[in-house]
Amino acid sequence: MAEKDYYELLGVKKTASEAELKKAYRDLAKKYHPDKNKGNKDAENRFKEISEAYAVLSDTEKRAQYDRLGREAFGPGGANPFAGFDFSQFGGGGGRARRSSSGRRGATMDFTDIFGDLFGGGGGGGFDPEPQQEAQVDVTIDFRDAIRGTTITLNVNGEPMKVKIPEGIGDGQKVRARRGNIPVQITVRVRPHPFFERRGDDIYIDLPITIGEAIRGAEVEVPTLHGPSRIRIPAGTQAGRNMRLTGKGVKKKSSAGDQYVRIQIVIPPDAPPEAVEQLEAAYIENPRANLKASL
């Protein structure tokens, strides 16, 4: 390797503190580490240079010797103090640099503390690349799948991944997952249902009934998210009345919403005139009597 000044290799001043050295080395090591530059000899050589520089300058005694004598402190003619070391161990698992068989000594140098500290490894095992930018994905699912939960398959960076959608998820809510070291944020859109309407964890449904059922009262079947249920319509029920089915809304692990039934009275399209006259005669007063004509 070319004999370059160790401070210049790390891009720091000769007065750099231990923290400044460590930061400079961390940034450069992440950039040139073999795990991120497979097959790139220039990056591999650069990584060796900065590793040697940091190994010397992070050691108080070696740094003092280097500041006094330069590379001459480590051998005749300024020989590289780490010539012959096998740095290939950094690319796959070990934090220990070894001398190759052509090296002059059989000594080893332990980089475990350096890499364990810099990259959070237990014993300096390899290099964990920085997480990539979060991937953003929009998906649309059926109303039924949103209520009951489902598993979907997404393609992230051309690779399929399965994501579990929790039961009770609402329109616009997000689910987070990971594809390797890539965080993925999934925004869930829910298709509308033809007759169920969701508001929070409560469900609303319009229930059509006949004029006779509204006048006399009746017991009718109502669809819910969890199967059919029966509801009692009191006699004289007016259109627009809300009736509640407790616990029949969206169910989650520790809670459940309610279902509200809105009464709609359906007028027959071909009612006999005499039947209409009889109904009209049943009104005791004008149903609009309490409405004011203006502000």
Topology overview:
Blueprint (H helix, E strand, L loop, with lengths): L5 H5 L7 H15 L8 H17 L2 H10 L15 E2 L9 E4 L8 E3 L1 H8 L15 E7 L1 H6 L1 E7 L2 E7 L8 E6 L2 E9 L6 E3 L2 E8 L1 H6 L1 E5 L6 E5 L8 E4 L13 E7 L7 H9 L14
Parallel strand pairs: 4-8, 10-14
Antiparallel strand pairs: 1-2, 2-3, 5-6, 7-8, 9-10, 11-12, 13-14
Helix pairs in contact: 2-3
Please outline the major beta sheet.
4 strands, mixed
How would you sum up the global shape?
A: rod-shaped
The whole-angstrom Rg is 38 Å
| N-C termini distance | 92 Å
Low-confidence stretches: 91-112, 118-129
Assign a percent range to the helix content.
Answer: 25-40%
Order of helices and strands: HHHHEEEHEHEEEEEEHEEEEH
The SS-based structural class is alpha+beta
| Proportion of strand residues | 25-35%
Number of strands: 14
Contiguous helical run count = 8
Residue-averaged pLDDT:
81
Which strand order does the major sheet show? 9-10-14-13
Structure description:
By secondary structure, the protein is of the alpha+beta class. It has eight helices and 14 strands. Strand 9 and strand 10 form a beta hairpin. The termini are far apart. Mean pLDDT is 81; it is low at 91-112 and 118-129.
Question: Could you provide a short overview of the structure?
Answer:
This protein has 295 residues and is of the alpha+beta class. The protein contains eight helices and 14 strands. Strands 9-10-14-13 form a four-stranded mixed β-sheet. Strands 1-2-3 form a three-stranded antiparallel β-sheet, with no helix packed on it.
